[in-house]
């Protein structure tokens, strides 16, 4: 039985950051469903593996094309990328972790707003999906009793991110988080004020593990697992606990947010399973007994937050045939069985 979609098969979809950790999986999902993808990348040469290794057939028959988008304020680059597009999946984001909010926050907001403005001028655009993060909703770990209902915003990040200089390196993560807060808020403000003809959704992504699509793909948060596996405890200092979601589930939920007529105006939570770093260590110990690993954390606690994932689970079933999110154990093991990351 065919699934009703907002966009017909063969439609051209813009995926920003197509060579990235999440972007590559979204690109794969769309191509395998018969859609055409125009992927933006910062460097064609570094992203060439998408065309030569992962999707050579699709590159040959023009189902996949890569375009340069390395300047978020270059209106020509953005307009060329958006031309003739039916749907936008905006995943790319400034991720240098520059601690100066005047750079990081401003650029993150400008990126999404510039794309929205361009999309509004292109009559072919019908759907727009933005990749947001749990950090846009709450600090990690969440306060006890926190429940994400689609109206929550991380109110605590602003004061930390916009505190006066010096902008020391340890402030890079909070500047990144505040950038995502303000960018998603700008996304919804654009819809409220401009009433574009296209529909919009955001996907609220948590801590993402799972195998990279290719050894040259950006490693993103999957690198944290490799660091811990290589006896480097640094990632365990970022936060004690969070919510895990597999990158393959994240990709499916982006596809659903783009193509499912029942999902509109949603902040779709990509929330799999609560975990702390000791849970990760237990899985790694079982996977490779005797391997030297970092010491367990003392009383890492739990994430504390909840949300209603019924809509997300329905989407996983409808678009992936899955009854539930991929388990933490499978996500961790598959990450380590995939392309390795040094560190």
How would you describe this protein?
With 343 residues, this protein is of the alpha/beta class. It has a single domain, classed as 3-Layer(aba) Sandwich (Rossmann fold). The chain is 38% helix and 16% strand. It has 12 helices and 12 strands. The protein has helices at 21-32, 49-54, 56-60, 75-82, 101-120, 157-161, 172-194, 222-229, 247-259, 277-287, 310-320, 328-337; strands spanning 12-16, 36-41, 64-68, 87-90, 127-133, 147-148, 199-205, 207-209, 241-246, 267-270, 273-276, 306-307. It has a 7-stranded parallel sheet, with helices on both faces. Helix 4 crosses helix 5, helix 9 packs across helix 11 (310-320) and helix 10 packs across helix 12. The longest helix is centred in the middle third of the chain and has 23 residues, at 172-194.
Task: Report a brief summary of the structure.
The chain has about 350 residues and is α/β, with parallel strands linked by helices. The protein has twelve helices and twelve strands. The chain has helices at about 20-30, 50-55, 55-60, 75-80, 100-120, 155-160, 170-195, 220-230, 245-260, 275-285, 310-320, 330-335, and strands at about 10-15, 35-40, 65-70, 85-90, 125-135, 145-150, 200-205, 205-210, 240-245, 265-270, 275, 305.
